[in-house]
Design goal:
By secondary structure, the protein is of the alpha+beta class. It has 18 helices and 8 strands.
Length: about 375
Amino acid sequence: MQILTSVSKYLLLALLSCALFLTWYGSTQITLTTPLPPEEIESGASTYSYSYSYSTPGASTSRALASITAADVLQVPSDVFKKIKGTPLAHTSDSIWKTLSKEFKLNHNVQASEVQKEIRRIQADHTRFYAILNAAAPYIYYIHQQTRAKNLPAEIALIPYVESEFNPNDRSTKGATGLWQLMVGTAHELGVQVKAGYDGRRDVVASTRAALAYFKDLGELFKGNWYLAIAAYNCGQGRVANTIKKAKSSNYWQLTKLPTETKYYVPRLMAVAAVIKNPEKYGVKLPEIKNKPYFTEVKSKKIVNLAKVAQSTGVNIKTLNSLNPDYNKGVITKGGAYSLLVPIEQVEKVKLSLPILETSKITKK
């Protein structure tokens, strides 16, 4: 038994040494350590605990692995050190991206040259792709829940990636505004108010509900052909219908007369969804955004000032501005219904402060 234990010990050490030998892969530095003292290994324990850390230019991360059996150690090189082009992978089970990808319904048509081109653009600029997805952090859970409630393909939750890069303050040269880049006329048709002191296109909740209601209608109009529905969101349902008529085909990929912007609009969305579904395949890292609500709505009896909310509660003013971009210089009436979005983890602080803030004199800065 003692001989067997010694052999097991040295076998384990040899395997760990091999793992340490593989500490450099591409541009990724990996270090493996065993926190268990030698005496625990010698005692014949059937499980071992160890951790690994890795670093890439500009970033470093550590991971802990526990209750690993001796047999599992054999899997360490393939499981822990799997790298694509030197980029560490992040796609945890409680990630919003994991949840989204499980609910994708569309054929991303990754073999199409148009989609391949957009995938290559993502691969060529990991930093930008990561930054845009990271900007979605305050909004993506809410948007996904709304797409789910309307039984829309989960891919629709990624439309703001293409439209505004998840920037609710984005405004195009043509005047389209907000996460969903609504024009004034479209906003009015969808029941979104645009008036002095308030632009509902920047209202995260109002614009999302309106845009998704529009997508629901487009999906029904084009009889579940989501390529066409998505294209129609970009250039208008009339334009798509006329193009179909002239081409005598409802196959999106054969509609060569669509506007140039629309021609890359659908492939870009498909490419983003394809990469999110399989980041390992494309060597791309996704930001670790939890699959849980980020904000909630708090009602107020009177108008409140965002700066004063931040000052009295300690909630970061940038966070409040990102959640309430429809506030004009920090103040908004929202059509007479006073409310604001706040991080869900700090909602109690805001609720306790509101009675005092509601009696304060509003000063527009």
